[in-house]
Amino acid sequence: MTVLRVQAGASLQDGGRPGYRRFGVPPGGAFDLAALEWGNALLGNPPGAAALELLLFGGRFRAEEALRVAVVGAPCAVTVDGRQAPWGGPFDLGPGSHMELGMAVDGLRTLLCVAGGFEADRTLGSVSGRAVCTGDTLRI
Q: What percentage of the chain has pLDDT greater than the value 70?
């Protein structure tokens, strides 16, 4: 998935880094763990699979392959190739599809979950905290 537009505060988040607090490492992870688990359950992913957490402003994305996704957390408008798509339920993106997530209308953090979860380098067993910028390609 290619990131065509995101604002500051976009990051990959997962279930965090449990078990390191005694070493001074906070658990981190998605701000809204219940939403992360919900989105992942909709897609058949493990509860803590990595998702893209967007802060308030949404974003625009291009699917480079067929994907099944779910948008959860703070409600927002969701469109795929200019047509409305569901918030809070799974839907499919075809190769080359453009998906736009609007500004959050109730809450601050919207989560974009993808079947299989996003992949990124892990630190202490977690991808949490990796900033996502316009132009990035996210691995699945």
A: 100
CB atoms within 10 A of CB 57: 18
In this prediction, residue 108 carries a pLDDT of 95
CA gap 122, 113 in Å, rounded: 18
Given pLDDT bands bounded at 50, 70 and 90, which one contains residue 88? very high
- Give the separation between CA 110 and CA 115, rounded to whole angstroms: 17
Residue 93: pLDDT above 90? yes
Q: Delineate the domains of the chain, giving CATH numbers in brackets.
A: 2-131 (2.60.120)
CA distances (Å), origin 31, targets 4, 10, 40, 92, 133 = 24, 12, 15, 25, 19
